What does this fold into?
Amino acid sequence: MQSAPPSYGSDQSGMVCGYLFGRAADGKGQPLDNDAVCRWLRERQQHPREFVWLHYNLANAATEKWLHEHTTLPEEFYESLHEGPRSTRIELADDTLIAVVNDVLHDFSFEPSDISTLWLSVDEQVVISARRKPLRAVDSLRNAVRSGEAIRSPVALLIHLLRDQADALIKIVRDAIATVDKIEDNLLAGKLTTKRASLGAQRRVLVRLQRLLAPEPAALFRLLQKPPAWVAGLDVQELRQSTEEFSMVLADMASLQERIKLIQEEIAALASEANNHSLFVLTVVTVLALPINIIAGLFGMNVGGIPLAQEAHGFWVVVAIVASFTVIAGWLAFRRQREIS
It folds into this structure.
């Protein structure tokens, strides 16, 4: 008895989900299985008023093979699948929009490994998306389609995805701001328990998010200036608005990074001040103990001629000498500290 190969959350072709949309204002997505997808792709010329969204899992080894056999995606799409991490970008290739969108995983916990990539190919009738790990924005879009939200065009679906990604990023920024606010309150109250290293890690993740999630301006500017003929003017306008929303979120993220930097500098200043205080206390104790150590060392030598050895009040005389030198040394140390401060 042979066991079925692992599907990694997808069917045998690698498809996680598929939906068919009509180009009507109230058009809702209808779920498709793999057989229906193959049949529609063969007959797509007969359905000019329809388009499909097919979402695939690249962790399934059958995905790329199936895409090569049943679709005519540009080579730029397959090349982008094997590139290293790059910032979010949308560019035009063979009258097809190729998008690389970076998003966060469901269990995002401010770790660099919690950021993954989604690849998209968008043409007049087919939207192909592929990822290796489940992402927030994609599942948010999938839930919206399941609940009956109308998607009027392939570009509208891409815009919906970008806005879902912006919403996820806004939530991350809000959580980070709440954490930074709490740290600042503890800092002002003198109850700081957060270390600079943890703040540094959070700042590095924010920098990585900003670098990966910010759309590349050059490719996006070219697309908005000369969009494909099949892209409606309303879609171009909404795409421009979604990029502006991204810009606002990224500006908030940049200001948050600056706040974290200032908190790190304040923590470093407090740590330096505490170290200086500890060093001063150690210096004062050393200075105050110096006279008694010197005199005790001199009087502890087992040689003849030690002064006051035969005096009845010799001990108290030595105590008075030690106390006098100690007071003088303490006065000099504290005067020096006042001059520095």
In short: The domain at 273-340 is CATH 1.20.58 (Methane Monooxygenase Hydroxylase; Chain G, domain 1). Strands lie at 15-22, 30-31, 50-57, 89-93, 96-104, 115-122, 126-131.
